[in-house]
Amino acid sequence: MMMLFCTACGKKEGGGQLEGSLIDIMAGLYEKADLSEDFRAGMDSFETFELTKDVEVSILGTEEITYTEGVASIPMISPNAYQCVLLRVEEDSVDTVKQQLKDNADLNKWVCVSAETMLIESRGDVIFFIMGDNNTAYAMNEAFQKY
User: Fold this and answer.
1) Residue 87, Cβ neighbours under 10 Å: how many?
2) Average pLDDT along the chain, 147 residues, taken 10 residues at a time
3) Which of 11, 30, 66, 74 is the most buried (most CB within 10 A)?
4) What distance in Å separates the CA atoms of residue 66 and residue 76, rounded to the nearest whole number?
């Protein structure tokens, strides 16, 4: 009984480390996600880039988050509110960073539009943070969980 209790308490959400660069993982998520044809058609205007100090506040809502690697994917021109972020962090800080993202996220940060949903998940040392419409956010989240 004690063995079961200890195992359950130690289990990490999502399970397993994600190997490879976050740019490659992001590309894999887009490839595997069950996204609408309209969304896919608009992906020509998307830019996926490594996070830098210059854009942290606009993407993460704060400059206080510590990460070892960060990638964001956003449309350059779109009538919809959307961003998808992957962060690689020290594994013992995953819960803290997820809370920081939740506390600082602004679903209304875009001009004239708002995101419907915000999801923050993790697998090992990688955090998945997305804001957008329900269908896209949940499709991307499912792809992240299965990646």
Assistant:
1) 26
2) 36 66 97 96 93 95 96 90 97 97 95 94 97 97 97
3) 74
4) 26
